Amino acid sequence: MIDQIIEVLAAICFITGSLLTLVAAIGLVRFPDLLSRMHAATKPQVLGITLLMSGLALSFQEVQVAWKVVLVVALQMISSPVSAHLVGRSGYRTKKIPSDLLIVDELRDDLDAAREPDSSS
User: Fold this and answer.
1) Full-prediction pTM beyond 0.90?
2) In the structure, how many helices (H) and strands (E) does the chain have?
3) Residue 21: CA atoms inside 13 Å, Cβ hemisphere, count?
4) In this structure, how many other beta carbons lie within 10 angstroms of the beta carbon of residue 43?
């Protein structure tokens, strides 16, 4: 009985994770600008991978698989925000992000401040 419940939970995780990964892929193709695509590439994709890995861990029910799943999920959660930050910053510097999409442009203020000569010396 408990094995059937675990298999149903694993199947739900597999299906939901696959759907979220599909949504992320569709968003990459359909969204109009870099910021929207960057959002689609990170948010649902990380949750989709997490659900897929959870389904895998539930399906196998072994400690070795669980440790590998934890490692995969941790690396995804660490690398996804960093890569999104770098993609956004590169897109900003190469002017691939229209300025009318930005309500507050903190990076422009920081870049302007970095270019100004230091007046304190």
Assistant:
1) no
2) 4, 0
3) 13
4) 16
- Collapse the DSSP code of 39 into the 3-class scheme (helix H, G, I; strand E, B; otherwise coil) and give the result: helix
Task: Please say if the pLDDT value at position 13 is more than 80.
Answer: yes
Long-range contacts of 36-41 (CB under 8 A, 24+ apart): 38/84, 38/87, 38/88, 38/91, 41/84, 41/87
CA separation (Å) from 40 to 44, 52, 62, 64?
Answer: 6, 17, 32, 31
* Contact residues for 97 (Cβ-Cβ < 8 A; gap 6+): 33, 34, 35, 88, 91
Contact assessment for residue 28 and residue 11, using Cβ atoms and an 8 Å cutoff: no
- Alpha-helix runs per DSSP H in the chain: 2-30, 34-60, 63-93, 106-115
Residue at 96: amino acid letter: K
Contacts of 6 (CB under 8 A, 6+ apart): 58, 59, 61
Taking only the tens place, the pLDDT of each residue in 26-66 is 999 999 888 889 988 888 889 999 999 999 999 999 999 99
